[in-house]
């Protein structure tokens, strides 16, 4: 019997299957099924390739090799870590490396990394010789609950995020929360924004469960709590994607917090200096969009303030001033959800009651941004 990851994170078996052939294993089922999957690889695949980035090669690959019987002869590929390398140039290099190493469409690519690596590895595998099998082993919180789920693959085109890609589903997804032990704290906190978003679009009970599991930031490092929270978060995303794979309707629920969040991210880039982590931008976006939800959808005001208070305790604030307002509002017009040059938002009438395509006026958005400025003034530095 092989040594396995410390399984105290997962006590409950969860397996989800989507009509688009997406299977996600967590907890002890992830270990059992990954072992089984590996045992069938020999003979099934002409070659096995493990894609890592410079960090996951250092921190995650050794764990994998210690705990699982990785087939002999598997080849390791490595890319540089970071969003700036999520490019067609990196893909081209990988396609060449695969070709030179004898990969063909009967080979398997194992993607071991965060959202950047999963998005790009899935794209490379799906297009190499018109498609080889791939599996995802997400190693960041964001990739576990979000990027690895739902079949969106691709890369950036210059500054245009995720502009080139396709929908393509992995053979299987195995989620091992043990990988979170080496994830830098700020990446863990950033990924948590998507967990909060999933809880808000799920049910009030899920949101309360989250509050109980992680009342404060320091509770993030009690890793026992992650199991059920990650499972619930994955279940929420899977449910939405299953109903609406190609974002015709319900999948837009996942955009909660993102219209303003993306505008904050773009604003931070224009300002220069360190880029704003995506999750931090989404968390601040959620604050503004909760205020908009109160105005447009009748979201209970008291509850909105409780959630905002929670967000301000967990996430670092993005500071803006009155003179930034017009630029930020202009940036929201670039959102892909807009139609006819009108801002269309995903908002909430209550936790779990998502309203999509809500037209928002510039004036009301301005007022909500003013409120945001007042709220962050009293938040911790
Ligand atoms: N496909 C989708 O539906 C979807 C959804 C959300 C986000 N995304 C994409 O996900 C990307 C962001 O993903 P991310 O936040 O995971 O960033 P990331 O992949 O860049 O990972 C963050 C950093 O953590 C390092 N790292 C990863 N796992 C580690 C571990 N276990 N220990 C130590 N270091 C580790 C990485 O090397 C990197 O430096 C973006 O490109 C975004 O577009 C895709």
Features:
disordered N terminus, 381 residues, alpha/beta, binds nicotinamide-adenine-dinucleotide, 11 strands, four-stranded parallel β-sheet, three-stranded mixed β-sheet, globular
Describe the structure.
- The protein is of the alpha/beta class and 381 residues long.
- 48% of the residues lie in helices and 17% in strands.
- It contains 14 helices and eleven strands.
- It has helices spanning 27-44, 54-59, 61-67, 88-100, 115-127, 141-147, 185-202, 204-213, 226-243, 258-271, 278-297, 301-314, 325-332, 362-377; strands at residues 14-17, 23-26, 48-53, 75-79, 108-113, 133-138, 152-157, 160-167, 173-175, 343-350, 353-360.
- Strands 4-3-5-6 form a four-stranded parallel sheet.
- Strand 5 (108-113), helix 5 (115-127) and strand 6 (133-138) form a beta-alpha-beta unit.
- The longest helix is centred in the last third of the chain and has 20 residues, at 278-297.
- The radius of gyration is 21 Å and the shape is globular.
- The model is unreliable at 1-19 (pLDDT under 50).
- Bound molecules: nicotinamide-adenine-dinucleotide (NAD).
- Residues 53, 55-56, 59-60, 81-83, 86, 113-117, 119, 139-140, 142-143, 146-147, 150, 152, 161-162, 179, 182-183, 187 line the site of nicotinamide-adenine-dinucleotide.
